[in-house]
Specification:
Elements: H1 43-71, H2 76-89, E1 107-119, E2 124-126, E3 130-131, H3 132-140, H4 148-163, H5 176-194, H6 196-199, E4 201-214, E5 230-233, E6 237-238, H7 241-244
Antiparallel strand pairs: 1-2, 1-3, 1-4, 4-5, 4-6
InterPro entries: DUF5819
Region (Disordered): 1-37
Transmembrane segments: 49-71
Length: 249
């Protein structure tokens, strides 16, 4: 037998003769890892995701630019496009720098509301005063992560209203009516949500007032300030059909 037919290093047969060398198996390559994230989507959905990300990025850049222009000193851009900047920011994104003012507020201001409710039996009932600021304070007290709405929605709405109305409660400037509508919609929403009487019927009118109380000085101070609240009473506001029907809930 030729040397080409047998391999002395191959496996041995039962009789001790040399066996035939077995063919070697090809090396095994690991399978490619599965695609994840956007790469796992089909091309059509990848295009949609890319467009959505582009829209979000553009909106974020525009918002940052609008905030910067609202805080920057008067310039050519703000003079030409001031109305567009205000419409973008007010009232939801209005900036408030009172926290860093040299003379911080030394008063506690509470926003209170009452309503005239038409009941299902056609009667009309006037609710008592509801302290919305106290409700927000109770929700924040002891809460490690209070929401932005609980901390700022009502407070900023009242600041916005006070800044755009005179001492006679008449609007000053073009934003006065907008601030009144914004505050009214917030208090109506809160009444429908939290006031039992308001939920028994349909709110027809609301009246808002603020209660301002001076922050008392520390015990070691000789300063004396009044601790009696000062009220600012708004007239009764009639609701629109959408508001009365609960369209702001």
């Amino acid at each position: 037998m030729d040397a080409y037919d047998e391999d002395p290093r191959g496996p041995q047969g039962p009789d001790g003769s040399a066996g035939t060398r077995l063919p070697e198996e090809p090396p095994q390559h690991p399978p490619p890892p599965p695609r994840t994230g956007v790469a796992a989507l089909s091309p059509r959905y990848q295009v949609g995701a890319a467009l959505a990300l582009a829209v979000v990025a553009v909106a974020a850049c525009v918002h940052v630019l609008m905030v910067f222009l609202s805080l920057a000193p008067a310039n050519t851009v703000t003079k030409q496009h001031g109305k567009a900047i205000e419409e973008w920011l007010y009232p939801e994104f209005e900036q408030n720098w009172k926290l860093f003012a040299p003379n911080p507020l030394q008063q506690n201001i509470a926003v209170q509301v009452r309503a005239q409710v038409r009941l299902h039996d056609a009667g009309v009932r006037t609710t008592g005063w509801t302290d919305l600021s106290a409700q927000d304070g109770a929700a924040i007290d002891g809460n490690l992560v209070p929401s932005h709405t609980q901390q700022n929605e009502l407070r900023r709405a009242w600041d916005y209203f006070a800044a755009t109305h005179g001492a006679d409660n008449r609007p000053v400037g073009l934003r006065g009516s907008l601030s009144e509508q914004y505050l009214r919609r917030i208090v109506v929403m809160r009444l429908y949500r939290d006031d039992p009487t308001s939920r028994e019927g349909v709110i027809q009118r609301v009246q808002v007032r603020s209660s301002t109380t001076n922050v008392q000085p520390p015990a070691w101070s000789r300063e004396r300030v009044s601790d009696k609240p000062v009220y600012r009473l708004m007239p009764w506001w009639s609701l629109t059909a959408d508001e009365a029907a609960g369209g702001v809930r």
